[in-house]
Design goal:
The chain is an alpha/beta fold. 50% of the residues lie in helices and 12% in strands. The chain contains 14 helices and eight strands. The chain is globular and about 50 Å long.
Amino acid sequence: MNVFRGLSAFPLTPADADGRVDTDAVKKLISRLSGGGVDSIGLLGSTGSYAYLSRDERRRALDAALEEASPGIPVMAGVAALRTSDAVKLAKDAKDAGAKAGLLSAMAYLPLTQDEMFAHFEAVAGESGLPLCIYDNPGVTNFRFGDELLQRLAEVPGVEAIKNPTSTPEAIGAHLAHQRALLPQGFSIGYSGDWNCPQAMIAGGDAWYSVLAGILPRPCQQIIDAVRAGDHAEAERIDIALQPIWRLFRDHTSFRVVHEMASQLAGLTVEPPRPVLPVSAAAKDEIATALRALPEDMLA
């Protein structure tokens, strides 16, 4: 499988209050994904709390995930860090562990220029030898990859894909066409923001980087399968069934919601890393109601 094509499931990373990863819980989540038939696994993304974990704990999580993942399902690991030298080390760790790609965001404290971000990516790709996906996540990083920067990065050996945010379903077609014209043929253009991604895949996106698939892979894979079969009506039908989940993601953030879903669906006792707090008791009830309303075949 190509790590930059199809459905990439992004699980959370269960850890205690001190950031010690629960490797047994990691394996339990990865087992769900392998059984759900996802195309790839995106470990240590934003949902995977990469920014809250040390280098050693990231490696422990990665080793556990790779041990449990089914053969043929590639793993992409988040390798972002404030310092370029640290990101290089994380990318080398990921490659040594067996990850097929790295997800690199514009993690920063001081605002960075477009030239600084280019040098950062060039160093990580060149020194690690790990294929990279650009993680454009301006809502968190406050950095936006400009068109000129994307064109320059797409020429860097090893930079092979981009994970884009989404705004509205109506904007995706034009955005995708713009990036297709901007970037080289074969460069993977994918999207996150689950509630818009079924439309992104119908429009011709290469990859769906999914938070929901990290805990509930089946309906997301059903959408991908329908799109591949050219059955857009079926993809839209499943998307409509997931609207209560998308509403919860928008209202409470997907990060907080999937931590509670891990408890209700997988029996895991896991909370977000502080200072992030779990969802309220009322929101937990909303999540339970939304899950009960899903067809049984989506929960398997």
